[in-house]
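Input sequence (91 aa), recorded before submission:
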Amino acid sequence: MKQIYAVFALAVMASTSVAYADATLSDCLAMQKQVGVALQSAQPSDDVSKARNEITTARRLCTAQLYTQGVAHYSKALGLLGKSSETAVRL
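Predicted structure, token format:
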């Protein structure tokens, strides 16, 4: 199971670097909202704790106008919470 999770995490990280190459403040806000909804419905677990850390990192990056990196961390948090991003993929 851990191997599947690791492969999934790597795939999410690889896709977000391409998918959000031109992320904006709006993308950060949209992802923040999605993560908030996912977090409300999540059951307490180690992954939820990890997701909270990713959310904190994402918020700091978005505040520093590093939107692409912030969106990538929000996306990772969604993955940890078992959700996928609804934000449109930009190629």
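Checked by second reader. Residues 2-80 form one domain.
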